[in-house]
Amino acid sequence: MLKLRVISAIIMAAVFLSVLFLLPALAFSLFIAVVVVVGAWEWANLSGFEVPAARIGYAGVIGLSLLGLYFYCGFDAGLLRLESIQTLLLIACGFWTIALLWVQGFPQSSLLWGNRWLRLIMGLLVLLPTWLALVYVRSLESGQWLVLLAIMLIACADIGGYFVGRRFGRRKLAIHVSPRKTWEGFWGGQICNLALALMIVICVAESSPVIVFIVVMASLASVLGDLLVSMVKRHRGIKDSSQLLPGHGGVLDRVDGITAAMPFYALGLLLTGWHF
Length: 276
Fold this sequence. Notes:
single chain, mainly alpha, two-stranded antiparallel sheet
C-alpha cells in the first residue's frame, strides 16, 4: 500500500507541475476546474446523495458556476475585476471562520449543517473559492511560483504535522473529528512553515512581515480544511471521499487542506500586493 501511495503521489505531482509550468493560464484553469468538478461529485456523496444522477447533476452545477466565475471575474478578457475577486475571497474566508466553530463544536454542531441540502451549499463555499483562488494566484506575476509556494506550505503543514505528531503527539487536537491529530503535530507543521517563510525571507530579502503573515495564515487554514472534510466524512460515516486515487482515496482527501488555505493565501496576496 505504501509503495502504491508513493507512486500515485509522484504521478500526481508530475501532472500538476507539468500543467502549472508548461501550459498557459487557461489550461491551468481548466485543469483545476476538472479537479473541482470531480471533487463536487465526491462532495455530493458526502452530502448524502448516493444516486449517480444526483451526483453528476451537482458536479454539473459546480461546473457551470465555475464558468460563470471565469467570466464574472474577468479571466476571459485578462482584465480582472479585483474588487469582485476580493469580495468573493472575503466571503470564503468568512465561511471558513464559521467552519472553525463547527469543527470545534462537532458533533453537536451538525445540527446546524448536517442536513444534506445544507451540506450541498457548504460544498459550494468549499469548492468554488478554491478554483477562484488558484486561478487568481496563477494569473499574477510569477504566478506559477506563487502557486507552488502555496502547495509547498500546505505540504509542510501536513508532513511536519504527521511526523511530529507521530513522534511526540499526546494531546488530541479534535478527537471527535480526527482522533489521530494532536496539538504537537499541529505545532510541528506550523514550525515547518515558519522555517519555510524564513527561507523565503532570506532569498527574497524584502517584505518579511508580509511573507510571514501570508504563510502563517495559509498554514493555519490548511489544517482547518483537513478537519472540515474529515468532519463531514465522519458525519456521513465513510473513511474516504472516493477510491479514485490509488492509495490516497478521493480527490477531496488530497485537496482538503488546499480548499481552506488558498482563499486566505490569495486574499493575502491581493491585499498586500506581494510577489517574488
